[in-house]
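The protein record quoted in full:
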Amino acid sequence: MERVPCLDWGDSAHFDHTRDRPCCLCGRPTPMRSHAAEPVHKVCAEAWNAAHPGEPRRHSKPVKDRPQYDVGTWRFHNDGPVTDVRAPILGHTITTNSLRSATRAIQGPEQHGLFAA
């Protein structure tokens, strides 16, 4: 059996408390949301990542005590490591508690995430 890396979606932004919507991959209802607010089961997203190894990948920030590692595809990926309560981004300081505001602050016209390989 092939090992599939598990996604870390611990941020509450990945859970819609108001309603379930059909998963974009299997069609069954789910309260889970991807980083792009796409309704998807975490297990479905993990299986999609494993089935699409050629998709563009995202990687963690390199840290002196920890090497850079694959956090998933651009479509479905981990929240990424949080090493500080506040993170400087593009000359502004934002709290890392809000995944969506951090993602919006970093995204450029062709960029859809926090880190690239």
